[in-house]
Amino acid sequence: MREKKLFTPGPLGVSLSTKQAMLVDLGSRDLEFIQTVKSIRSRLVELAGVSSDDYTCVPVQGSGTFAIEAVFTSTIPRTNGKVLVLENGAYGRRFGQILKVLGVDFKILTFLENEKVDVGLVEETLRGTQGWTNVAVVHCETSSGVINPIGEIGRLVKECVPDASYFVDAMSSFGAVDIDFTASKIDFLVSSANKCLEGVPGFSYAICRKDKLTGCKGWSRSLSLDLVSQWETLEQTGQFRFTPPTHCMLAFKQALTELEEEGGISERRKRYKENNRIICEGMKAFGFKTLLDDTHDGFIITSFHYPQHDNFNFKDFYTRLQEKDQVIYPGKVTKTDCFRIGNIGHVFPRDMRYLLQCVQEVCSDMGIPLPLKE
Ligand SMILES: Cc1ncc(COP(=O)(O)O)c(C=O)c1O
């Protein structure tokens, strides 16, 4: 099977050595495995830039959505729970789907998909209605690439509703985009193994304020997604409650070593930003237009409008790129036809330059002259 280069929001490419780290079978009670889980949990708290006195990391088996669902099901009070969701894209809307399934009271405050969450409107809502117990927002809305102002929102939440839990979905941003946990007043944040930290898919994690987490004991409506029980068992025995993602954990340990070798989060951010600069400049030189204007500074993923040319057909464009082992992604915004190119995972500036060369060849093969006409 040929290796493909993934320029997607996930699953993302990972290094060969990270994949090779999985070639060992370990039992869930193996001391080596227990030690691995412990070190991963404490390393994630360190990467969050917070003290282990105040925060803890709870890994959850499954993809990123499992950790999101675990936070919601575990942290919304059983009685009088009321959640404010700030939504400007598909992942914010998914919060709504989860809350509907949980049958809790919630309101979705919707913003334009190509704009950041408007902090002024959030303030109006927080001050205008009483009883919010939880506020949730997506940091990097991967459907568009917009980075939301989680710091301003968090400070507002704590000013207007000091007892509410503030939850940030930093799935595609944690480990690359700067997040000041303390200044942003984050109580719960989730991400997953196969995003900016470049492990293989298979588990996600929540970084939780300990006092908030312990205050939620007994609230979960789910057995397997109960964050408090998961945390208690990990603390008491070092083990997961149910079959652990042993191979994924071993890969993640290797991925964290490789993050360190790269120079930590700041160097990874530099690489991703450089990937983003190359792809944006190159695509713009070809005449493609980005969905977001220059006021946005996200670098995780970029949405490009479909070119206005009769020969352009996304499926054909995608398939031809795929035949060259280059995997891009369809758009996920509702009102505009877009496709997306991701800059994260085990991809480097040389890969972005090669992708541009492939885009040029594919456009030529499709009879779409570059640069595109206005
Ligand atoms: C911001 C955000 N939230 C949630 C998810 C869902 O994660 P998963 O598909 O791993 O369940 C993603 C996936 O890319 C994401 O980018």
Automatic annotation (TrEMBL):
Domain of life per record: Eukaryota
Annotated Pfam families: Aminotran_5
Annotated catalysed reactions: (2-aminoethyl)phosphonate + pyruvate = phosphonoacetaldehyde + L-alanine; glyoxylate + L-alanine = glycine + pyruvate
GO BP terms, alphabetized: organic phosphonate catabolic process
InterPro entries cross-referenced by the UniProt entry: Aminotrans_V_dom, NH2EtPonate_pyrv_transaminase, PyrdxlP-dep_Trfase, PyrdxlP-dep_Trfase_major, PyrdxlP-dep_Trfase_small, SP_NH2Trfase/AEP_transaminase
E.C. number(s) listed in UniProt: 2.6.1.44
Domain Aminotransferase class V stretches: 29-319
Modified residues (N6-(pyridoxal phosphate)lysine): 195
UniProt enzyme class: transferase
Alphabetized UniProt keyword annotations: Aminotransferase, Pyridoxal phosphate, Pyruvate, Transferase
Positions contributing to substrate binding: 340
Any one Gene Ontology molecular-function term assigned to this protein's record: 2-aminoethylphosphonate-pyruvate transaminase activity
Cofactor(s) needed: pyridoxal 5'-phosphate
HAMAP family, per the entry: PhnW_aminotrans_5
PANTHER family named among the record's database cross-references: 2-AMINOETHYLPHOSPHONATE--PYRUVATE TRANSAMINASE (PTHR42778:SF1)
Family to which the UniProt record says this protein belongs: Belongs to the class-V pyridoxal-phosphate-dependent aminotransferase family.
Name of the molecule in the record: Alanine--glyoxylate aminotransferase
Source species: Patiria miniata
